[in-house]
Amino acid sequence: MRPIKHIGILTGGGDCPGLNSVIRAITKTAVLKYGVEVIGFMDGFRGLVENNYVQLDLRRVSGIGHTGGTILGTSNRDNPFNFMTMIQGELQSTDQSDRAVSNIKHLDLDGLIIIGGDGSLNIAYKFFSEKGINVVGVPKTIDNDLSATDITFGFITAVNTASDALDKLHTTAESHHRVMILEVMGRYAGWIALYAGMSGSADVILIPEIPYNLDAIISKIAQRFRQGKKFSIIVVAEGAHPAGGDMVVQKLVATSHDPVRLGGIGQQVAEEVSSRLTDIETRVTVLGHLQRGGGPTPYDRILATRYGVAAVETFMEGKYGSMVSLQGNKITTVDLQEAIKEIRKVPVDSKLIEAARSIGVTFGDY
Ligand code: F6P
């Protein structure tokens, strides 16, 4: 085996607090510990296809560990295997994966470390399994929906933001005797809603894993009223839906490898609640990208740094086709193919849900 000299990295999918901490940790470990050069492709997989990259050295990654976003840019639209290109005035899908491979060879890279969620890691796996590229994955997403790792970096920061929003919504809820609804992100999993709802003392938490009945929500609000609590706080995950009903899709983005843009369930729940409780004012806040913005919490900075260091170690050990993962308090590696098999949803019999029910939280099912 030839000695490893150059590694390419990229950040793919939605931005996420902690990306810069990973970039910093990878670069520092590679340079300081192994004398390996790192280059970063710009704007996710687009940079790989278009050969748009920057040299990452100690100076370039200095002072970025606490910052939000990604110094490399990212995209959740560009898939080299299904790359949208303007051909004669029309957007058409073409396979640009060989162009990406030829860039990797031309730059004499020994392989790639790909930092991304399930979409990007699926593409990473295709490069490994179909194109023979040495790949190591790092699990990123505020949604915390990757199986094979206990937690993804960025999640705790998003929960902090949502929990803080709930604290603030409590003020108006209580002062004005209102029902305040907070819609949070999370795609098809309810992790952010569950954790933020628990932390922010929500009365009702609606998650995709537990379809809701309006009656259960109304009866909770009414019960609180009878007890003299003239306000209620509802957290609703963007993927939540009524029993027998569908998720609310804000938009379909055909050019994206994540074409379904969720959003709007908060408003739907507000209208449903208002139609039944006409005396109580109900308001909605959609937290949106605030959950992805800003610097990572100390927990996420440390987790992201540990992932970055471990990704380089894994690469240097030649364990390609794997993803670094947190299991308990230990960083380990898992098979990338296994890691992308299915997304991780909240188990409906989880201890956290049980604890929430014990303190009177309603999930809308009864
Ligand atoms: O996966 C992260 C996430 O923020 C989801 O929670 C959300 O559904 C999606 O990305 C939004 O993506 P975009 O910023 O492309 O609309």
* Number of helical regions: 11
Bound molecules: 6-O-phosphono-beta-D-fructofuranose
Q: Average pLDDT across residues?
A: 96
Sketch the topology as an H/E string, one letter per element: EHEHEEEHEHEHEHEHEEEHEHEEHH
- 3D shape: elongated
Low-confidence stretches: none
State the oligomer. Answer: single chain
End-to-end gap: 60 Å
Topology:
Blueprint: E1 6-11, H1 19-34, E2 37-41, H2 45-50, E3 53-56, E4 83-87, E5 90-94, H3 97-106, E6 112-116, H4 118-131, E7 135-139, H5 155-176, E8 179-184, H6 191-199, E9 204-206, H7 214-226, E10 232-237, E11 249-252, E12 260-262, H8 265-276, E13 282-286, H9 298-316, E14 322-327, E15 330-335, H10 336-339, H11 351-358
Parallel strand pairs: 1-2, 1-6, 6-7, 7-14, 8-10, 8-13, 9-10
Antiparallel strand pairs: 2-3, 4-5, 11-12, 14-15
Helix pairs in contact: 1-9, 5-6
Residues 14, 76, 117, 141-143, 185-187, 238, 261-262, 292 line the site of 6-O-phosphono-beta-D-fructofuranose.
Task: Write a compact overview of the structure shown.
With 366 residues, the chain is α/β, with parallel strands linked by helices. The chain has 11 helices and 15 strands. The model has no long low-confidence stretch (mean pLDDT 96).
